[in-house]
Amino acid sequence: MLGARVIALPEEPELPDAIFVEDTAVVLDEIAVLARPGAASRLAEVDTIESVLTTYRPLHRIEAPGTLDGGDVLRVQRALYVGRSTRTNEAGITQLAQLVEPLGYRVRAVPVAGCLHLKSACSHVGDSLVLVNGNWIDTGAFTEVELLEIDAAEPAAANAVLVEDAILMASDVPRTADLVRNRGRRVVTVDLSELRKAEAGGTCMSLIFEERSEG
Questions:
Q1: Taking the model in full, what pTM does it have?
Q2: Which residue, 48, 82, 96, 213, has fewest beta-carbon neighbours within 10 Å?
Q3: What is the pLDDT of residue 60?
Q4: Is residue 167 in some structural domain?
């Protein structure tokens, strides 16, 4: 319906968090950066992602002592907003900046206080518009974008997925969905009730990028 091809990864029952594939990498137009998850139990998840992404992008890697979860990285055009969280540390942010700034990206660190990952509190919903829960993060870093505050009654609503011209949002945040529609966006709702039990949002289960073969 949205024109995307889905690549399903093998089940990994010994890695219960592997469904949250977003945290394992940051995929840009030019390269992919393999993350180093802040939870030690998740480090092995990166191996599976490496075997898949090597087909599509030159790979780089965050190294110790750096930690970086992909859920802490929000791309808006040529800016990368990176959450300074319990899962992503200063060394990880610095390493990411060293890899991407030569390619023309700008890295902006964002303090995260009210949630696990940055993208639990903000999402790119097209053009320069960012959907945000300002109670969970420091919005002062967002100097180059327009912010759209979620409905206060729906604190988890700021996590949305941009696919082509559509915004995928959880079906349990109708008020915020209407705010997004009122900005001219096409909203597609998805039942995330089971994933909510693990504090997951729509972005957690995918890495979305333009398909191209390396070389």
A1: 0.95
A2: 213
A3: 98
A4: yes
Distances (CA, A) of 30 to 26, 74, 213: 11, 16, 11
CATH number of the domain to which 72 belongs: 3.75.10.10
CA distance 201 to 191: 11
Decide if 171 is inside a domain.
yes
Active-site choice (115, 122, 124, 204): 204
Assess if residue 44 is contained within a domain: yes
Is 117 noted as a catalytic residue in this protein? yes
For residue 70, what are the domain limits?
21-205
In sequence order, the 6+-apart residues with CB closer than 8 A to the CB of 55 are 213, 214
pLDDT over 90 (residue 212): no
60 is catalytic: no
pLDDT of residue 24: 98
Categorize the per-residue pLDDT at 1 as very low, low, confident or very high, splitting at 50, 70 and 90: low
